[in-house]
Amino acid sequence: MPPLFNRRPEPGLPGSLPPAPLPLAELLVRVRQTLETRFADSYWVVAEIADLTLPRFDGAHCYLVLTDQHVTGRGAQLKAQARATIWSQRYQQLAPAFAEQTGQELSVGLKLMLRVQVKFHEQYGLSLDVLTIDPTYTVGELARQRLDTIRKLEAKGLLERQKALPLALGPQRLAIISSPMAAGFQDFVQHLSESPYDFAVTLFPATMQGTDSPASILAALDLIRARRATLDAVIIIRGGGSKTDLLAFDDYGLAAAIGAFPLPVITGIGHERDEAVIDLTAHIALKTPTAVAAFLAERLTRLDAVFGGYAERIQQVATQHLAQAQTYLAKLTRYAHQAAQDQLEQHRADLAQQLRAAAAGPRRLVREQRRQLARYSHALPRAARRNLATHQAGLRTLGRQLTQRFRRLHRRRREQLLRHHYHLQLAAERLLHRARLRLLELDARALPEPATLARHGYVQLLTTDGRAAAALRPGDAVQLLLPAATLRAQVTATQPVVVPFSDSASPFLSE
């Protein structure tokens, strides 16, 4: 048989020829023969079901994908995976025995201890044939998981939180989480309808078995949480079932949600011997839906009996108090009648005395008022004369004061007018004197030429006979030479005008 690998040539020796190539089929046959020789026995392995294909018909096989993963000390995650097969005849023996002893069917995520045999096929590769399954390992694993769940709930205080919530004395507004077609729900409703009390039942449908059950119940709890102000309690019920059906009620998330729910939760999930984890976190855990209905009806019955006893006791006490009150009222009536008679006699005596006093009082008052009127009739004329004399003296004094004040004001105003008159005369003389001085200082120089006047925008006066403007008389005809036109006019009147000119102010004297 040629070697399965190429060897290096030894030093000093000529190199050997390369080995002849093998067909793939022959190589895989050698691998199968080696594995059958090396792993001829069967082995117990622990693995988790990562994928599962159950038989769809009688005679079909069960195919699994087994995986093994754990965390090392350094935190690395190791993973191994292999295909496995449970042949049809062996599956028909192993599956019912496993379900009977563990209470559940084979499912993804389940951890198993299997006895397998290594098989290799040239076309399908490496696989494991499952020979048997140890159900005791799975039962212990489920118990360990359940114990871990209970410990987590206890560490967070969720096992006792629901029990500390107060349950209503007569819970009648109920939120039911159940499957609407479940027989347990129908029995629960029937039992409540047979009781003499009126219950307001609101159903929140949910899946009560299978892997989807925890998520469905949690969704129903979220809907109830939004309406908790109108509810008294939450009831989780379902009919009987196998151990596999009850595994969903051991879910940690569902149990924690029930333990932290703000309303009391009562469970009746239809088991007689086993206890689910949600029963530990619920406010009250009962065995069956019928037991829950009986508990609610019995609670109202006891409350009704208590209220009936209270009513009888209240009636007895009220009767006693009424009799005592009637006796006391009769005594008060007699006392009030006697007291009214005494007060009436006393008021009559007081009224007679007041009438006598009232008759004497007005007469004394009238005499006193007459005496006062007589005194006032003598005193009023004297007081009027005194007031008149006082006012006349005051008026004379005011007249003299006004006369003196008017004389002072008149003298003061006359002196002011004289001062103003003197100042005006003095200012007029000063102005006249200044005007005379300016007239004396005027120079008899000639005015500018008419063309110059016209150039500067002034009007030029022309006469027909060449006379001067000062010789003109009323009725003479003249012409007014303007910068842009000539106008004919007639002198109607003359008036002498003195125009003072200065050398600095006139533009014509400077040319």
UniProtKB/TrEMBL annotation:
Domain of life from the UniProt record: Bacteria
Which molecular-function annotation in GO is an example for this chain? Answer: exodeoxyribonuclease VII activity
One annotated GO biological process = DNA catabolic process
Q: Which residues form the Exonuclease VII large subunit C-terminal domain?
A: 158-487
Q: Which CDD domains does the UniProt record give?
A: ExoVII_LU_OBF
This enzyme catalyses: Exonucleolytic cleavage in either 5'- to 3'- or 3'- to 5'-direction to yield nucleoside 5'-phosphates
Q: Name one Pfam family in it.
A: Exonuc_VII_L
UniProt keywords (A-Z) are: Cytoplasm, Exonuclease, Hydrolase, Nuclease
| Enzyme superclass (EC) | hydrolase
One GO CC annotation, please? cytoplasm
Chief location:
cytoplasm
Domain (OB-fold nucleic acid binding) ranges: 24-133
Its annotated compartments are:
Cytoplasm
What EC number(s) is this enzyme filed under?
Answer: 3.1.11.6
Family statement drawn from the similarity comment of this UniProt entry: Belongs to the XseA family.
What the entry lists under NCBIfam families is as follows:
xseA
Under the subunit heading, UniProt states: Heterooligomer composed of large and small subunits.
Q: What does this protein do?
A: Bidirectionally degrades single-stranded DNA into large acid-insoluble oligonucleotides, which are then degraded further into small acid-soluble oligonucleotides.
Which PANTHER family does the UniProt entry name for this protein?
EXODEOXYRIBONUCLEASE 7 LARGE SUBUNIT
The name this protein goes by in its record: Exodeoxyribonuclease 7 large subunit
UniProt source species: Hymenobacter persicinus
